[in-house]
Structure formats: structure tokens, C-alpha cells
Design goal:
6 helices, 158 residues, 12% strand, 5-stranded parallel sheet, alpha/beta, globular, Rossmann fold, binds magnesium ion
Length: 158
């Protein structure tokens, strides 16, 4: 199973508004300024333990190297990273029609996690699953795990 995550306002959050994981030690906190939403480390541990591939799917143009490097500092190994550049190259390509801003179905991603409701609307239109998490919510990881388990059960019954 594959689960992808948006970065901005999903995993990368403003510490003024959200509880966050501890900032990195020097010099890494200078290199990697973004702060992870509290619970991210444990959630990714759960994914790994359950053989779920963690992907990042962001419209931002942060490099894959930067994104992987940041997560590695927190002990998280990402499976694949789709950034704005890769999306343009592999999804939009020379398609004359505008593709949705994210298209997880292209990568056979089973569930995408995002804060942007328009991504969910695109999911309904184009046929991919999106789970929305928004503002500070202590139960955000449990909600995601519950959704993952529902999908796993559905797949088993096929
Ligand atoms: Mg976002």
C-alpha cells in the first residue's frame, strides 16, 4: 500500500499555530527550517511497521534531496518524492489539457493526505482517494490510521 503526504500545512506547519516535533539540532535546524507537525515521526513509524510506502507529493519546488534530507534527520526514510518539477515532467508533460495540481493515481498511490479541499474535489472528479487534515487536531494521526485500515479492509474483500 502507498500513502502520500502533502507538505505545506499538512506535515510542515507553523509552530505558532501547531504543536510540532522538536526542532533539529544545530546545524541542521539552519539547513532545514520547516517544522514537522507533532505526531509525524510516530505516524511514519507505523507506516513502516505495516509495510506501507510513505510518499511525499507536493506542488512545491523543494528539491527531492532537500526533502529526503530533512526527513532523514528525523529518522524517516521516504519511499518516493513527487515535487512540482517531477509532477510537471511526469504528469502534466505536454498534455494540452491542464491536469489537476496533484494526480496520485498516476503513481498508484492508494491514499493521499492533504490540507487543501480542492485536492479532495479533484480526487472525487479524477478518481483518487484524499483524506483532509487541517487545523491543529490531537487525533490527526489516529484518523489517518483509521482511514488506512478501512482501505486495507476494502482491498482484502476484493
Ligand atoms: Mg498544503
Amino acid at each position: 500500500m502507498r500513502v502520500s503526504f502533502d507538505l505545506d500545512d499538512t506535515l510542515f506547519v507553523a509552530p505558532e499555530k501547531f504543536k510540532t516535533e522538536k526542532s533539529l539540532r544545530f546545524p541542521f535546524r539552519i539547513i532545514y527550517k520547516e517544522r514537522l507537525r507533532l505526531g509525524t515521526i510516530e505516524l511514519f513509524k507505523y507506516l513502516t511497521e505495516h509495510n506501507i510506502e510513505p510518499w511525499i507529493y507536493t506542488t512545491s519546488f523543494r528539491s527531492e534531496r532537500y526533502i529526503r534530507g530533512l526527513f532523514r534527520c528525523y529518522g524517516i526514510k521516504l519511499c518516493e518524492v513527487v515535487n512540482g518539477e517531477r509532477h510537471a515532467r511526469e504528469v502534466q508533460r505536454d498534455n494540452p489539457e491542464a491536469m489537476p495540481s496533484k494526480y496520485p493515481a498516476k503513481y498508484r498511490i492508494d491514499l493521499h493526505i492533504d490540507d487543501d479541499i480542492s485536492v479532495k474535489q479533484n480526487g472525487d472528479t479524477y478518481g483518487f482517494r484524499v483524506f483532509i487534515i487541517g487545523a491543529e487536531d490531537e487525533h490527526w494521526t489516529e484518523k489517518i490510521i483509521k482511514r488506512i485500515e478501512e482501505i486495507r479492509n476494502d482491498n482484502r474483500q476484493l
